[in-house]
Design brief:
single chain; 3-stranded mixed beta sheet; Hect, E3 ligase catalytic domain fold; 17 helices
Length: about 575
């Protein structure tokens, strides 16, 4: 038995009985439980008259973390000179980082705090333990080894398609019969669908959060916390159940889980000592499709991601323009800016490059002016025309969509496949040449300079062939999927029975973008403007026009007469306007 003093070093100060338990410690031995630690510490304190004492514990905290609430309370009491003795089960209860533990030991020494580790037979007041640093290093090695084992288990689980998160995202809950499966929480899922629908209606994240707050809809952390589930069941704000944050809306709108996919390895830690995880690059994510029931469709999710690329700002009339982010300049490719007045006297679009260059007195691009009412009519007419044609002529529609794809004919796809096989053979041949060149260099049959030149040429050629193969595979897959895309457009068109009014949802579901050309004038002075419309799934599709009979001489003559009449009227109004301006100037 170690020698211990029967009285604490300073009777005016308290003794702290500190206990800590992590999930790994709990699994390794029943004796590590908080209950057993408390009983062991109390018996020791009573036997050695270490009174008065208080219990401080951290249940469920790893020894690699130093933000433990109990530990923070203990250090605060030590720095306030309220502690005379700290009693622990063993040295690993302090922590599993020997550098930090050493710093805290020095703090205890400076403050005159006695440290007792019962199972290690250590008492800072009665003996110097030369092996304490080694035990602390072993404790850290133990934490590192446990971390490696847990990481290995999680990697295997994640690569098998099992969700790694402890709590499903808002809208799902764990299956009572299988904790690794997710089922839909209908109450929460209805809100998720509504948030996606509000985005489809053209609302921004701030407007959505404000609407939900005004309607007193419970936010996810409060909804889950009051049920005792979720990541914030102990920290959610009970005083503000309807305080929606825009970050919450953004997170819901960006989660692939809502289309039925499991996303693993979205975050990572560089070290087992790190407290916060880091976001991994999207290309490092591992995505498994159709692992659980979907709350929204893939088409709705893709449309929402496209809409989120454009900021939905509210202008002077208090609402966001639904056409923002859909109209582009045909010459410079920039987006068109909207300008509208509160009283409705103006509502039109201009090229953003042109508008911004006006402030620098160096004109770039041209206006590409178009009125909002005009483009809405054009879009509605195009949607109506293409949808009607797709429903009434499904076979011809699918064939025309395929003809308009990157690979326009099946013969071209076959040529791509032949070239793919040829490229693969050449890539394998380059591998053999590289190995032979390396052996010749290693056997001094080839100089280092010549080896560097040849190997560089081989690598460049191989990289070019691989990049070409990637492009060929993408084009072949696009050709094979064009029939599916056409079917999706037909299914979308069938959902609508009324094409008389262009709603925001219809606009976002049908239209990918519209390219606006500059206005021109014909021989009679009439304004003409071309608009290229790109639909979701099918791109820029042109409905075949029925052949019209050639106009008769009488009809041609009438067209000429009407054109000259419009031209004369325009010249008359232009002349009158000039005269009126001259009178105003003279006056």
């Amino acid at each position: 038995m170690m020698n211990t003093k029967k009285q604490p070093a300073n009777p005016k100060k308290i003794t702290i009985l500190y206990a800590r338990l992590s999930c790994e410690d709990e699994q390794s031995s029943e004796s590590n439980s908080i209950k057993n630690q408390r009983r062991l510490l109390e018996e020791y304190a009573e036997r050695n008259k270490l009174t008065p004492y208080v219990h401080i514990c951290d249940d469920g905290y790893s020894g690699t973390r130093w933000d433990r609430p109990g530990w923070q309370e203990l250090i605060a009491k030590v720095e306030a000179d309220e502690v005379g003795c700290i009693c622990i089960k063993d040295g690993s209860r302090l922590g599993r980082d020997y550098l930090r533990v050493g710093l805290y030991r020095e703090l205890f020494r400076e403050k005159g705090v006695r440290l007792i580790a019962i199972n290690d037979n250590y008492d800072s007041e009665s003996n110097d333990d030369d092996f304490a640093p080694f035990r602390e290093i072993m404790a850290e090695w133990y934490a590192r080894d446990v971390s490696k084992k847990i990481k290995s288990v999680l990697h295997n689980k994640g690569r098998a398609g099992k969700p790694l998160t402890n709590n499903p995202p808002f809208g799902y809950k764990k299956d009572p019969e299988d904790k690794t499966r997710w089922v839909i929480d209908e109450s929460a899922a209805a809100l998720v669908r509504r948030i996606f629908q509000m985005t489809m209606d053209g609302m921004g994240v701030w407007k959505i959060a404000q609407t939900l707050y005004n309607e007193k809809v419970e936010r996810p952390s409060y909804y889950l916390g009051k049920q005792g589930i979720g990541n914030r069941q102990n920290t959610y704000e009970t005083m503000h159940p309807y305080k929606w944050q825009t970050s919450t809306i953004v997170e819901i709108l960006s989660r692939l889980e809502y289309v039925g996919s499991t996303v693993n390895f979205r975050t990572h830690k560089d070290s087992y000592k790190d407290k916060h995880s880091k976001i991994a690059a999207p290309e490092d994510w591992l995505i498994f499709e159709n692992t659980h029931p979907a709350i929204i469709t893939q088409e709705v999710f893709d449309t929402v991601q496209r809409l989120r690329q454009t900021v939905r700002r509210h202008d002077t009339i208090g609402e966001a323009n639904p056409l923002s982010g859909l109209l582009f300049c045909s010459d410079c490719g920039a987006k068109l800016y909207n300008k509208r007045a509160r009283r409705g006297k103006r509502d039109d679009y201009n090229c953003s490059t042109y508008k911004l260059s006006c402030t620098t007195f160096e004109q770039k691009c041209t206006p590409h002016f178009i009125r909002t009412a005009a483009i809405r009519d054009i879009l509605l007419d195009a949607i109506n025309k293409v949808s009607t044609y797709a429903i009434n002529n499904q076979t011809e529609f699918i064939e025309k969509v395929r003809e308009a794809s990157t690979v326009r004919q099946a013969e071209t796809a076959k040529a791509h496949k032949r070239q793919l096989a040829k490229n693969e053979r050449r890539i394998a041949e380059l591998d053999r040449l590289f190995r032979k060149t390396y052996e010749d260099n290693a056997n001094s049959k080839l100089s280092d300079e010549r080896f560097a030149q040849l190997s560089g040429e081989y690598e460049r050629e191989q990289a070019d062939l691989k990049a070409q193969n990637v492009q060929f595979v993408a084009e072949i897959e696009a050709f094979e999927k064009d029939g599916q895309k056409a079917g999706k457009f037909i299914a979308l068109a069938r959902r609508y029975t009324n094409f008389d009014t262009l709603t925001n949802v219809m606009l976002n579901e049908f239209i990918e973008k519209a390219v606006i050309h500059e206005q021109t004038r014909n021989e009679y002075g009439d304004t003409e403007q071309e608009v290229d419309i790109y639909f979701n799934f099918i791109g820029n599709f042109e409905v075949p026009e029925e052949e019209k009979p050639e106009p008769s001489p009488e009809e041609l003559a009438e067209q000429e007469r009407q054109g000259q009449k419009r031209k004369a009227q325009r010249e008359y109004h232009r002349r009158k306007y000039a005269e009126r301006k001259e009178k105003q100037k003279t006056a």
